[in-house]
Specification:
GO terms for molecular function: beta-glucosidase activity. The chain is of the alpha/beta class. The chain has helices spanning 15-18, 46-50, 54-62, 77-91, 102-105, 116-131, 147-153, 160-175, 195-199, 209-234, 256-278, 283-291, 302-308, 358-372, 398-416, 465-475, and strands spanning 8-12, 95-99, 135-141, 181-185, 239-245, 248-251, 313-317, 321-324, 333-336, 339-342, 348-349, 355-356, 376-380, 421-427, 447-449, 461-463. The chain has a single domain, classed as Glycosidases (TIM Barrel), CATH 3.20.20. The strands form five sheets. Strands 1-2-3-4-5-7-13-14 form an eight-stranded parallel β-barrel, surrounded by four helices. Strands 6-8 form a two-stranded parallel sheet. The chain has a two-stranded antiparallel ribbon with strand order 9-10. Helix 14 (358-372) packs parallel to helix 15 (398-416). It is globular and about 60 Å long. The chain starts with 7 loop residues before the first strand and ends in an 8-residue tail after the last helix. The model has no long low-confidence stretch (mean pLDDT 96).
Length: 483
């Protein structure tokens, strides 16, 4: 079976990882603007990389430069978006997934009126995409909530944040009404892995962290349902999706206890999509709350709002798979995308410890479609690795081509098996600042950006060998994968 004729091939980025301009256009500080590059830490130590304390935040607020805070500078797409979009158009992109920085529209997050400069910036970006017939796929919240809301009220742990987010979303829908595809929260399940990055929760100011994390998730579910309803009202032809981190977990052995351990991890992985797609908390999750003494504050109208405003499609990131066992002592562990799990001896791993499992993408697509019977969208998938720019401005990245060919071929097999797939956006089609480690040297792109981890470089853009490979994949609607 071929990919649908209007299959949305493209790439995905986040405002906080590409834009820069952290102090321009009346933008406020976001949680990403205090993410510090920590070269002294092991690059696979994600929990310490994303960890933040009150003291860290206070130091960052006083810092008036981007020196130790790479997400403040990004790759300067704030000034270079026209150049970057032209390169995406040259590759043949049908869509570009990007996020709107909440703090460009509402610097503190709780203002009643938006910042006109922020609205104008994103109108210009969308206009540029439309010039090349590139469909915008917009994420409303992608790890960049206002720092003010985190410091003043512990972010999404406070119910008042719902109203502020709905106000922000309403401004987006009113001013960017020619956008058809929207996502609410990026990797919404990640609140329990990095609560500050995802939900503005400051751990050292939180008495019961697990309670705060799941309360924040509930508030995000309510907010997602409210903005889904609002988007359908203001943009009648729109489609709104949820977005989760798909971490497919296999049992380490055929022992029933290990199979059960994998089942439990996969059940938790599905939880957030279950709520947003089916409109209710699964019974097993409700029991999980009871078993762990998690008591959510739920208003009477919350469950009705969630039930009546489910999403139109499911989008997800897929980078790797993991192993689970009932007894993990002595088991070799590896990490990836801030997740720690058993290392699969049958799979290769990247320099950052991420397992490379193309077949896992097919499994994930089949499982998700069987589970939900809703259209799917792969909105993140890619290989972060070191690249070498030659003296003549080339990057020979056969390893990246190999990675994408293996994953896209498995994706095609899932489509042939009957999966309804809307599109595919590779993560970081242009090199950007890494979400977890704030590195520049962990490169994902088809386009090389001349900048190092310390911000040195010309910022010039160079087409890698993979640029031309992906260009052909798009031009043939995936048929070249069979070559």
């Amino acid at each position: 079976m071929e990919f649908r004729k209007n299959f949305l091939w493209g790439g995905a980025v986040a405002a906080n990882q590409i834009e820069g301009g952290w102090n321009l256009g009346s933008k406020g500080l976001s949680v990403a603007d205090v993410a510090q590059y920590r070269p002294q830490l092991d690059v696979t130590d994600y929990q310490r990389q994303v960890g933040v304390t009150t003291a860290d935040i206070q130091v960052a607020i006083k810092a008036q430069s981007a020196k130790d805070y790479p997400k403040r500078r990004g790759i300067d797409s704030y000034h270079r978006y026209q150049e970057d979009i032209a390169l995406f158009a040259e590759m043949g992109f049908k869509t570009l997934r990007f996020s709107i920085a909440w703090t460009r529209l509402f610097p503190n997050g709780d203002e009643l009126e938006p910042n006109p400069a922020g609205i104008k910036y994103y109108q210009n970006v969308i206009k540029e995409l439309k010039k090349y017939q590139i469909e915008p796929l917009v994420t409303l919240s992608h790890y960049e909530m206002p720092l003010h809301l985190a410091v003043e009220r512990n972010g999404w742990a406070d119910r008042r944040t719902i109203a502020d987010f709905v106000r922000f979303a309403k401004v987006c829908f009113e001013n960017f009404s020619d956008v058809k595809y929207w996502l609410t929260f990026n990797e919404i399940d990640s609140v329990t892995r990095h609560p500050f990055t995802s939900a503005g929760i400051i751990p050292d100011r939180t008495a019961n962290l697990i309670q705060a994390e799941y309360q924040a998730l509930h508030h995000q579910f309510v907010a997602s349902a409210k903005v889904t309803k609002l988007c359908h009202q203001l943009i009648p032809e729109s489609q709104v999706g949820c977005m989760l981190t798909k971490v497919t977990t296999y049992p380490a052995t055929a022992k029933p206890e290990d199979v059960l351990a994998a089942f439990n991890k996969n059940t938790l992985n599905y939880f957030c999509a279950d709520v947003q797609v089916k409109g209710e908390y699964p019974q097993l999750i409700q029991q999980f709350f009871k078993n762990n003494q998690i008591e959510l504050t739920v208003l009477p109208e919350d469950l009705a709002i969630i039930r009546e405003n489910t999403v139109d499609f499911i989008s997800f990131s897929y980078y790797m798979s993991m192993l689970a066992a009932a007894d993990e002592s002595g088991m070799e562990m590896t990490s990836g995308n801030t997740v720690l799990g058993g290392k699969n001896p049958y799979l290769e791993t990247t320099e950052w410890g991420w397992t490379v499992d193309p077949v896992g993408l097919r499994i994930s697509l089949l499982e998700l479609y069987d589970h939900y019977q809703k259209p799917l969208f792969v909105v993140e998938n890619g290989l972060g690795t070191h690249d070498q720019l030659t003296q003549d401005g080339k990057v020979h990245d056969d390893y990246r081509i190999k990675y994408f060919k293996s994953h896209l071929s498995e994706m095609a097999k899932a489509v042939a098996a009957g999966v309804d797939l809307l599109g595919y956006t590779s993560w970081g089609p242009i090199d950007l600042i890494s979400a977890s480690t704030s590195q520049m040297s962990k490169r994902y792109g088809f386009i090389y950006v001349d900048q190092d981890d310390n911000g040195n470089g010309t910022l010039n853009r160079y087409r890698k060998d993979s640029f031309y490979w992906y260009q052909k994949v798009i031009a043939t609607n995936g048929q070249s994968l069979a070559e």
